[in-house]
Design brief:
The complex is a heterodimer of chains A (about 800) and B (about 325). In chain A, about 5% of the residues lie in helices and about 60% in strands. Chain A is mostly beta strands and about 800 residues long. Classes of the chains: A mainly beta (about 800), B mainly beta (about 325). The interface between A and B is large, with 71 and 69 residues.
């Protein structure tokens, strides 16, 4: 007997809030016999699992997609079936079989497009109008690698910044702002582990080495219930798992960094390993010049590196285990020695930050319809800045050696350890149920200053700052992606979470709903509603663009942040003269409560007050619309994205309680991305971006004020905060790629220009001592060249 | 701390490729407005500082004294006084100098509404309104028996000694606290040879709840002791230690006059304004702080007007 579901939705009111409660009732009914086809979908050449691939019955069009681990399950009527397996960038496969019992078939797809009439007819489920999910974009890694980028370094975050609804921060910045949210409101996951800092080199590059990446998905709204903990976006990045078939290596040598990735089977088709590393080497090359050019023999260190490693072990057809690591670090500093008379001095100073994450994952196919993923996750982020000076001299005539030392150090960070379990249950082809839960222990170091003085007068060794704070965050969720009718598809879910910190408990119930309704001619209307809650805050200084990020927990004084977002959109696949496009237009509105900002006059480095005393909680509002036109196939591919948006904030004691534009309120944001394959070996790519000027506070007038101490000071003021707009930002990047097959493998030369027409875009502006406005720009036209290889 | 900041700035600037240029920026033209700063204290003569704003890119030298401005004090909408310009330009480089001081002859009273209006031919008329509260806190039982006279050798002349008072002054504060008001205590010599005794500078003691005021404690305040209140009754004895480590400026010539205690009752708005000014002063030039916006309650102009009350008690 087959089982059907009756969905009941209740709207209840509790404590002046409304909650949607979903009930699924099982009802029995008798239908024709069904069986399930399940298994893994992988890349034929590497054994990598294909995520989000489409599988469907070519006759009934009932279908499903592979989950985040490449697993699929499709329940169909018993009998002869013809199942299509399809994935972007791969040749599709059709399996004809007689399904008279549950079957497990693992499919390996071969890379390369198979363009023929048959493909066009059997690809309806890949259309943008099919999915109930809106506000979600998957970015193929190969697209990231083909983008012209600053100094020739392909960058994931820079590519995301070209999408509608995603804005960059300052010039060159790797931070991203999604639908008016702050940089802390993005949940960035690397193989399931949260990454708290995603930037290198003061924000100019991200921590993601594209050679190590397998899949990238960005969700901006309509959040499925399995995601939680941040208000504005989820960036879910999964690493490659290692080639199970054969060893290979790829890498590149660029202007500022080089990278190497090696992967291969330790046991063929059973266990594989991938190691990927990237490091800048400008400091190594410049070291001798710096040492000789400076009278004190200065040695400077400025570099960053990323190391990714993953071990993949297929225990059996049902069980797989993965262990993955990521370590990335930035370091900037210098040291030098000096001597005068008989005194020797050593001075050194530096700033550094880094991430270390590790994930232990176990996948198990419990049965043909039920898949389980269990993870243990650890993630650490640390920021540190410090300086020291040491003097030593020999006393005369005693000959005693004396030393004096002064040392100051500031550090902060966050340390997570936790676990989660997720289940994918596909009882029928029109249901895809996900449920699970997790718990994480967060340990916050919210800024500790340590001072050490050791001289002839005194010895001090002390630390000032708050003690580390531990908190426990837990959640459970359930969601169902259900096709109610041929036209109506819903994703219903609920995310229930809570944070326990300093004897306070903050629970949260977050309903989620996405809907898609099919109209004629492949048009689809989509809508979504989601509530989100965020239990951790990021204190980031808006004036100084430094990695002085401080992660802090929600407390009784600085409560968790909440948001609700509605979105409405239309989507349609479009074909113009054999060229296929996908078009989507979305409008959204989002409100956020308890967003935080530094109080006016608060000093990030101030030690006289705790972080809670430096911040204010307030309200945020963003709304806008996004247009996205994408062409994925053909010699010419790319996209056009345009966003029209507003983003405002309101705090009781900032801007005198009046609403003001958020710093990253950009009225217009546009990007045009094109890639043209001149031939199999030569391609040309170009991006053009445009963004309205950022908001900032510049004094518009000044007047004299008497302070309580009796002194007169001149104060520069503006009518309201962020009332000034920097000049608009626009830039063209272009690049060419020349690929050649060699006996030993493949080599590729990349040539590019960042900021090809040399536009001096604003980085920041200030008023100089002559009373003139100065604009500081960072990057003029920057050529780049890199050599990449694969064997 | 400054050292660290400069290390970081140097590091960032040193490793950035930067291009700098002057740009024609569309900063809006600024129409200069009158600025007024005035704290009316009931029982005292009114005094206001009047000036004007200038564009942010202009030089400080462009500030002009509006000695010909008409500054009118209204009480309950009736003009009661015209403040006169007080020419103190000879003190321009002295500590505490204020540009554009206007002084009046009418004693301000509590529980009355006041408006200070400034008219000038070159500017739009500006005005601000406030009310002076009543002070309900009594100062009593001032005990200066703990004071003694001490001396220290002058920094300027060897063998010459300066004399100063040092020791404990105890006094009692009683009365109902009004929600939303802030209480400032200052202590000085009656003849006002020193504005306030120079005390060891410490963090000011802030009492946030009337029930939390410690009794009979020895405290080391800055020259203003500040009590923030909630509703409740104040009944406390405070001890202030004057010049515990020697006076280091402003010596009195007359050491026989009394000690004057001055308790000011100020509004929440005044407190917020003063805090913002302090925040502005502390943050100026620091790239790691957020820009500070000062409260402005002047219509047609900029600045701040507030009303307070005062209770003064002398030890003699």
């Amino acid at each position: 007997m087959a089982v059907n579901y009756l969905l009941i939705i209740l709207l209840i009111k509790m404590k002046n809030k409304y909650y949607l409660i979903f009930f699924c009732l099982l009802t029995g009914s008798v239908f024709s016999q069904k069986n399930t086809l399940s298994g893994y979908l992988t890349d034929k050449l590497t054994g990598e699992q294909l995520i989000g691939a489409t599988i469907y019955n070519s006759k009934t069009y009932e279908g499903t997609t592979t989950n985040a681990y490449g697993f699929y399950s499709l329940t169909m009527d018993t009998g002869k079936v013809s199942v299509v397996f399809n994935y972007l960038g791969y040749q599709y496969q059709i399996i004809d079989t007689i399904l008279n019992q549950n079957m497990s078939i693992n499919i390996a797809l071969e890379p390369g497009e198979r363009i023929d009439e048959v493909v066009i007819k059997v690809k309806p489920n890949t259309k943008i109008s099919e999915s109930s999910q809106m506000s979600e974009i998957s970015v193929p890694v190969k697209v990231i690698k083909r983008m012209p980028a600053i100094l020739g370094e392909p960058d994931l975050i820079k590519t995301l910044q070209l999408l509608p609804g995603v804005q960059s921060g300052s010039e060159g910045s790797a931070g991203f702002y999604v639908r008016g949210g702050g940089p802390d409101q993005n949940l960035v996951l690397l193989d399931g582990a949260p990454l708290y800092n995603t930037s290198h080199l003061f924000g100019f590059f991200s921590t993601f080495n594209p050679d190590a990446l397998n899949n990238v998905k960005l969700v901006k709204g309509g959040f499925p219930a399995r995601y939680g903990g941040r208000l504005s976006s989820v960036l879910d990045v999964s690493m490659k798992e290692g080639n199970l078939k054969k060893w290979n290596a790829e890498g590149g040598i660029g202007l500022i960094s080089s990278r190497l990735t090696v992967q291969g089977p330790i046991i063929k088709d059973k266990m594989s390993l991938i190691l990927s590393g990237r490091r800048t080497y400008y400091d190594i090359l410049a070291a001798p010049f710096i040492a000789s050019a400076t009278p004190r023999g200065t040695r400077a260190a400025f570099y960053f590196y990323d190391l990714n490693a993953k071990l993949n072990y297929k225990i059996s057809d049902r069980d797989r285990v993965y262990i993955s690591f990521y370590n990335g670090k930035d370091k900037f500093g210098f040291k030098y020695k000096d001597s005068y008379d008989n005194v020797t001095s050593k001075t050194q100073a530096g700033i550094g930050w880094g991430n270390l994450t590790s994930t232990l994952r176990w996948n198990r196919i419990l049965n043909e319809k039920l898949f389980m993923n269990v993870c243990l996750i650890s993630s650490k982020f640390k920021f540190n800045v410090g300086a020291s000076e040491e003097y030593s001299w020999t006393e005369t005539p005693s000959g005693n050696l004396n030393k004096e030392r002064f040392e100051i150090d500031y550090s902060s960070g966050i340390d997570d350890f936790g676990g989660k379990v997720d289940f994918d249950w596909i009882p029928k082809s029109n249901h895809f149920v996900k449920f699970g839960g997790g718990v994480t222990n967060h340990k916050f170091s919210t800024g500790i200053f340590s001072f050490k003085i050791d001289d002839s007068f005194e010895t001090i060794d002390t630390a000032i700052g708050s003690k580390p704070v531990s908190s426990i965050e837990s959640y459970v969720y359930i969601e169902d992606d259900v096709k109610l009718t041929k036209k109506l598809k819903l994703n219903l879910g609920a995310h229930l979470s809570g944070l326990y910190v300093q004897e306070n408990f903050f629970p949260s119930f977050q309903p989620r709903l996405s809907a898609r309704y099919l109209l004629k001619n492949d048009w689809a209307i989509k809508s979504s509603y989601s509530q989100m809650r965020q239990f951790i805050h990021l204190l980031t200084n808006e004036r100084a663009g430094l990695p002085t990020d401080l992660w802090v927990p929600a407390t009784d004084r600085v409560k968790p942040e909440d948001s609700w977002q509605v979105a409405l959109g239309v989507a349609k696949p479009l074909k113009i003269k054999k060229h296929e496009f996908e078009i989507s237009i979305e409008a959204y509105y989002k409100e956020m409560n308890n967003v935080i900002s530094y109080k006016e006059g608060a000093d990030f480095f101030g030690i006289n007050e705790s972080w809670e005393d430096k911040v204010e909680s307030g309200w945020g509002q963003t709304y806008g619309s996004e247009l996205f036109v994408q062409k994925k196939f053909g010699k010419l591919s790319g996209w056009f994205g345009y966003t029209l948006s507003w983003s405002n904030r309101k705090f009781a004691n900032i801007n005198q309680g009046e609403l003001y534009p958020f710093k990253y309120d950009r009225r217009h944001d546009m990007s045009i991305v094109l890639t043209y394959d001149v031939s199999d070996n030569i391609s040309f790519s170009a991006n053009w971006v445009f963004g309205s000027g950022q908001a900032l506070s510049l004094p518009e007038y000044q007047y004299i004020v008497n302070s309580s101490t009796g002194s007169s000071i001149t104060v520069g003021q503006a009518e309201h905060k962020n009332s000034y707009r920097m000049p608009n930002y626009h830039r063209l990047d272009c690049g060419m790629t020349f690929k050649k097959e060699k006996k030993w493998g493949e080599r590729t030369w990349n040539f590019g220009f960042y900021n090809a027409y040399n536009r001096l875009n604003p980085f920041f502006v200030y008023i100089n001592y002559l009373g003139k406005i100065n604009q500081v720009s960072l990057f003029p036209i920057i050529p780049s060249i890199s050599y990449n290889f694969k064997f | 701390m400054k050292f660290l900041r400069y290390i970081i700035l140097f590091t960032v600037i040193g490793f950035n490729i930067s291009c700098e240029k002057e740009i024609d920026v569309d900063l809006p033209d600024h129409v200069a407005k009158i600025t007024i700063q005035c704290n009316l204290i009931s029982g005292e003569l009114p005094e206001a500082t009047v000036s004007h704003s200038i564009h942010s890119v202009n030089s400080r030298d462009d500030f002009k004294v509006l000695s010909d401005a008409e500054v009118v004090l209204f009480e309950n909408s009736v003009p009661v006084d015209t403040l006169k310009y007080y020419d103190n330009t000879s003190d321009e480089y002295s500590y505490g100098f204020r540009l554009g001081v206007f002084k009046g002859d009418y004693i301000v009273q509590s529980e009355k509404s006041y408006k200070v209006q400034v008219n000038h031919k070159n500017y739009e008329t500006a005005y601000g309104e406030t009310t002076c509260p009543t002070n309900f806190i009594e100062i009593s039982e001032i005990d200066v028996s703990g004071l003694k006279i001490d001396s220290m050798e002058s920094y300027m002349e060897e063998g010459v000694f300066d004399y100063y008072r040092t020791g404990k002054v105890t006094f009692k504060l009683t009365g109902p606290l009004n929600n939303g008001f802030h209480y400032y205590i200052s202590i000085a010599d009656e003849n006002r040879e020193v504005d306030a005794f120079e005390l060891i500078s410490q963090d000011p003691l802030i009492v946030t709840d009337g029930n939390n005021i410690s009794e009979d404690g020895t405290i080391y305040p800055s020259d203003n002791l500040h009590i923030s209140s909630s509703n409740g009754n104040l009944n406390t004895v405070l001890t202030i230690d004057i010049n515990p480590q020697g006076a280091w400026s402003d010596f009195e010539k007359d050491l026989t006059d009394g000690i004057e205690l001055r308790l000011e009752t100020q509004s929440e708005e005044y407190y917020q304004f003063i805090k913002k000014v302090e925040e502005y002063e502390n943050s100026e030039g620091n790239p790691f702080t957020e820009m500070v916006f000062l409260p402005n309650n002047i219509k047609g102009g900029y600045g701040f007007i507030s009303g307070g009350a005062v209770q003064k008690k002398n030890s003699l």
